[in-house]
Amino acid sequence: MAKRPAVARTVTSLRRALEPYREAGERIALVPTMGALHRGHLALVREAHRRARRVVVSIFVNPTQFAPHEDFGSYPRRFATDIKALTEAKIDLVWGPSASVMYPEGFVTRLAPEGAALAGLEDKFRPHFFGGVATVVAKLFAQTAPDFALFGQKDYQQLRVITQMAKDLDLPLKVIGVPTVREKDGLALSSRNAYLSASERAVAPALHNVLRSAAARIKKGEPIERVLDVARIEIDLAGFALDYLEARHALTLTPVAARKDGLIRLLVAAKIGKTRLIDNIAV
Ligand code: AMP
What we know:
The protein has about 280 residues and is of the alpha/beta class. About 40% of the residues lie in helices and about 20% in strands. It has 10 helices and 9 strands. A 6-stranded parallel β-sheet has the order 1-4-3-2-5-6, sandwiched between helices. The protein has a 3-stranded antiparallel β-sheet with strand order 7-8-9, with helices on one face. α9 (about 205-220) runs antiparallel to α10 (about 225-235). The chain is globular. It starts with 5 loop residues before the first strand and ends with a strand. About 40% of the residues are buried. It binds adenosine monophosphate. Adenosine monophosphate (AMP) binds next to α2 and β5.
């Protein structure tokens, strides 16, 4: 039977657990998560194992990236099940701080990312989000000091923000984006899919299907705005309340009008019932 990973609950015990790896010259990869692990997270773990001898998974539902009206309280927490999955995935160490370890009394510093973090996508609907994410990820990086950190392309704007943050702050690690893992019907895996009712779950893959056909039409040379107008209506008709569907430059996330403007990424966010889903695709 595989060995259960050690679980560190304080910064001191985390650093103590990492010390022998570093002394042995072993490379360390960090996979930050909010738990309720699924095959998407495990794809990050697999990629981490390819890059580094030692893999650390953090599990922390970060309160500062949720607005008061959002789902912090109801976000799925399944620590015991997660540990089982991470045992099978041969993880060395789990970093599971409490909120008071991460944000002890007197904590006042918050990063304010700009650029991709102000692209008018997730930030428009969750203005507090990237400040919270950048701050906690910077702390996770400082606590763990990994050689690699793995993030999903599923949260594409987040991946761009973190990549830029690591560059801007000269952090000595490499941020790696891992392709989105999907259900057979195309729905991107997400811990929040657990919120979907059976009928919502049946409709949910429409989001990916619409993205795919829009990407194909843009690739064929159809005008981007016309393709997006049709796609927005399709998402609406499928039963979603659309937050945004946009075509952006794949690296800067600035608006693009035509294919000649460079690599294009389509990004979407929409609600089905009470559940907000996001997805994206390369053109
Ligand atoms: P979360 O626990 O939702 O904060 O996600 C933790 C990490 O897993 C983030 O880097 C996500 O982008 C990544 N992730 C979540 N869902 C998927 C997926 N379906 N495929 C690949 N990566 C994912």
